[in-house]
Amino acid sequence: PVRFNALDADPRWQVIWAERGTFEADDASPKPKSYVLEMFPYPSGRIHMGHVRNYTMGDVLARYRRMTGHEVLHPMGWDAFGMPAENAAMEKGVHPGAWTRANIADMRTQLKRLGFALDWSRELATCEPDYYGQEQALFLDLFAHGLVYRKESAVNWDPVDHTVLANEQVIDGRGWRSGALVERRKLSQWFLRITDFADDLLAGLGDLDQWPAKVRTMQENWIGKSRGLKFRFDISDPLPGHETLEVFTTRPDTIFGASFAAIAADHPIAQALAANDPALVDFIAACKRTGTAAAEVETAEKLGFDTGLRVVHPFDPDWTLPLFVANFVLMEYGTGAVFGVPAHDQRDLDFARKYQLPVTRVVAASADLADAPVGDEADSAPGVLVQSRFLDGMTVEAGKAEVIARAEASCWGEGTTVWRLRDWGVSRQRYWGTPIPIVHCDACGVVPVPTEQLPVVLPEDVTFDVPGNPLDRHPTWKHVDCPACGAPARRETDTLDTFVDSSWYFIRFASQPDDKPFDKAVAEQWLPVGQYIGGVEHAILHLLYARFWTRALNRIGRLDVAEPFAGLFTQGMVTHETYSRTVEERTETGEVLTVPKWLSPDDIERRDEGVFETATGLAVTVGRVEKMSKSKKNTIDPGPIVDQYGADAVRWFMLSDSPPERDLPWSEAGIEGAWRLVQRVWRLTEPGAAGDGAAPKLERLRHRTIQGIADDIDALQFNKAVAKLFSFVAALEKAPAGPDRARAAETLILLVAPMVPHLAEEAWARLGRDGLVADAAWPAVDPAMLVDDQVTIAVQVNGKLRDTLTAAKDADKGALEAMAMASEKVIRVLDGATPRKIVVVPGRLVNIVA
Ligand code: ANZ
Ligand code: ZN
């Protein structure tokens, strides 16, 4: 028999789908609507296996939903702004726009070769003015409603490159390009009021029952609602105007473990003291050199300056604590002042060890462990309070409540609800992003760009030869007349965080008019997204921002949708073995280190004696199976694999070997197995093909397979669906010619159509069917055929199980009694005795009383 020729068939069907607009979603369709979405890719230049797996899963669902009578929206676009394009501009001298658009063109071609059922008519790229201009309109609408504001906030400043760095550009406290120690600087920046929605974002998680529990927990922790206490220490020898020190804590229960108090370098008390203390001035300058990222503050060396002042313990007038200025206390958070409890907070412990302050345990697993020593790790585990006077024996939670109650009763503090969530800082001092549509005028202040002047388009003629924001140094772009008074004014040169772009793209997919961001009624027909699929790396920020943005649009009356994504699925990664050889490397200081040199799977060969580098013949170490990554060189490019095996085999492999939420190890054997399955299905669906075995239950199996695969796809259990197909294929291979076999072969084509659509179309056409299998209906199931008509009957002798029988479900008492008495095992046990009585419960059991 002739093989299925994917290289011939794939492009042919792809052209037919495109020409017919098969996958274009119709807003006006009367069918029930189904919105299937995979997280849109960043156009880095290459489609990788992770994309292939992600989009294949979404594609199976989208195609299946079409077959079950839904009008499906399954769009694709590009998350096209961001740093890598600017890095390419700096490194290779290409314009970020040219680089991005070329990458999009390449990746679109690569995606199309996989035959995804995408509505390309709705394709969008966030870097084009028709998208970001509408984003600017939304931003201004939020601004008009008070959900956008400007405030001073700290950024990472590279003193050599004279540029603001994103947190991920700060490596070990140094600028990624210059290597200079990063400083903390204050800049006026734009913020979105996500904290206004904190309660609602938290409460909404409770309704997201089609989200993974772990993602909901991650969001809950990120929002971080807890109870805290703000209270005032008396300063024992106060400065004029500073009689008390207000601190904030989320652990008031640990108050008897306090051994110091500390304030931020920017705290008014530190500033006041610095006026007469040059050493403190120097110390404050040193503090500013610690970056702003949370991780940075955690890991940077803890530095303190003893002010000589002391604060009085709120529960003991004779107990005073030293007051330090410390680099790990941030002015932006709480009150910019803390009390330190070394035994139970890592930063405080590091600090206390360095400055020889007492470490007192006040929480222990149980009361008798009050003396358990504290090593180098602070103990944040729950337990009971110890060495804490009136709190002794209480739980942490009870202790918190008790201290808050006493503070409030004596008026030295107030309980507060505290959120970990901060307002969302969206200003980026970069070129390749959405320009913030604001003008700064000396007379009028902050002036929004009038809607009719949108979009504010990025200038094309920019340079990347020097560090900093090209928009800032562009000769003309930022000089505009004030929209309010006409005087010369300056454009805002910050651009928006790219997470803003991805916070509403799914709405724009649903409705894409030219003159506004989206049409409310049309968007609401599609939303929420029924099934969203993507990587767990976006479990927090992207999903939280999109949930916030949807609520913000709701509040300003633009969209009546509560949650953007009804169902969420986070897929596992595609992994591969790693290969390396150790090489010697000389460091700057002349030291010789042995380091792994990672090798690509293309550069190695397997022989009986082991694995070797092809070029050198040297032995290669086969390392752990890890996520495919450029740095470990263990990637497999989907392009050549599709060339060799065709799109369907690749798609099938992506679905088969692992549950979709788990990692999928790439293997040659796996892709070959998928290819063989493609060929087996092709042979089976050849008109007139037949096996020579017996297949009495084929019709029953057919119905059960249809139902089983439908259930599996609905539950996104694609590997289970493939396993069921395997059994069905095996049964069909034995089935003799006849109407049952013909019907089963046709069903097989329909069942595989969502997974291997090119093969299915080709086989469908070969059967002489009209129309596309993509437009065909999912095969019907006869529920009667799913009911098992066989039951298992327990056979007991004197109440003891001796045998089990398979009988027809409706077999009567006489038939069951006869079958039981004929059982070899029963005959042996009875050993010739005549039963005194036989009890038969039809459908269940036969008990023989001897
Ligand atoms: C005493 C204490 C004891 C604390 C203990 C923690 C553990 P989260 O939970 O992240 O909100 N803190 C308060 N303001 C701060 C600031 N401006 N800069 C740095 N740290 C600050 O953190 C709240 C805790 O962080 C607060 O509770 C405070 O330390 C510290 F076993 O107070 B805690
Ligand atoms: Zn003005």
UniProtKB/TrEMBL annotation:
Domain Leucyl-tRNA synthetase editing: 220-407
Binding-site list for ATP: K630
Compartment(s): Cytoplasm
GO BP annotation list: leucyl-tRNA aminoacylation
Domain Aminoacyl-tRNA synthetase class Ia: 421-577, 626-666
GO MF entries: aminoacyl-tRNA deacylase activity; ATP binding; leucine-tRNA ligase activity
Domain Methionyl/Leucyl tRNA synthetase: 39-170
Primary location group: cytoplasm
Keywords assigned by UniProt, alphabetized: Aminoacyl-tRNA synthetase, ATP-binding, Cytoplasm, Ligase, Nucleotide-binding, Protein biosynthesis
Entry's EC annotation: 6.1.1.4
Ranges spanned by the short sequence motif 'HIGH' region, renumbered to the chain: 41-51
Reactions that this protein is recorded to catalyse: tRNA(Leu) + L-leucine + ATP = L-leucyl-tRNA(Leu) + AMP + diphosphate
A GO-annotated cellular component: cytosol
InterPro entries: aa-tRNA-synth_I_CS, aa-tRNA-synth_Ia, Leu-tRNA-ligase, Leu_tRNA-synth_edit, M/V/L/I-tRNA-synth_anticd-bd, Methionyl/Leucyl_tRNA_Synth, Rossmann-like_a/b/a_fold, tRNAsynth_Ia_anticodon-bd
SUPFAM superfamilies per record: Anticodon-binding domain of a subclass of class I aminoacyl-tRNA synthetases, Nucleotidylyl transferase, ValRS/IleRS/LeuRS editing domain
Motif ('KMSKS' region): 627-631
NCBIfam families cross-referenced by the UniProt entry: leuS_bact
Name used for this protein in its record: Leucine--tRNA ligase
The encoding gene: leuS
